[in-house]
Design a protein that fits this description.
Strand order of the largest sheet: 10-3-12-11
Helix content: 10-25%
Number of domains: 1
Shape: globular
Distance between the termini: 66 Å
CATH class: Alpha Beta
Largest sheet: 4 strands, mixed
CATH architecture: 2-Layer Sandwich
Number of strands: 12
Radius of gyration: 20 Å
Order of helices and strands: HEEEHEEHEEHEEHHEHEE
Length: about 250
Amino acid sequence: MTMDRRSVLGLGGILTVGAVLAPGLRLVAAPENAAEGTTEASEKRRWGMLINTQQCNPACTACTQACRAENNVPIVGDPQRDIHWIRKVDLHDRSGRNPDRSLPVLCNHCEHPPCVHVCPTQASFVRKDGIVLVDMHRCIGCRYCMIACPYKARSLVYAKPSEHGSVNPNVPIRAKGVVEKCTFCVHRVDQGGEPACVEACRKDGGGGMLFGDLNDPKSEISVRIREVRTSTIRPDLGLKPAVHYQGIGEG
């Protein structure tokens, strides 16, 4: 028997909580109230990050190592196939007016993300709170999003999941042949926390990374952005990135 999408959705008005769909399979409703300490995605929030490059040591890898450990991102050993959710980039000013900088680069969680616009299966999407995610069950590995991203923040998973064990049980096991990227450690954000890179930078790095709600004028990140001069990467594209940088583009 086959059913179209409308028929499947129509089952929602027929099945009751705890209804048996098949032997050993039961439909259970999600709890009405979120667990204590969790943060529900809301359009009232706009999560963002501010990185002070003046406090970023070129030799420091606290943020990149924390990201790999937290999100089970492996090093395959092939520069063409290694996955980087966050990477360090050296910035040189050819004019000589500004000092060289080292800055972490990650998914910028744009307000108008080109990766989402080109995705043929809607695997790439934006949550209500501005976090850009990838649904690995929808991703077909076409890599259109990788081409569209001006920040080179996406990677295709070449290795089989079994080749790299999962360390963090809160992070889904990766699937071969799909695209993945920084999620702002959404599993931590939804529990009221912050991305692992930000925490590691504060504890083991220069303390130059700040995460918070850009929509809240009283949040620390919003106040800082108002008080100091900040820049985004490729603002000319009109993507409205949620990742801001301090200490670049002064001249």
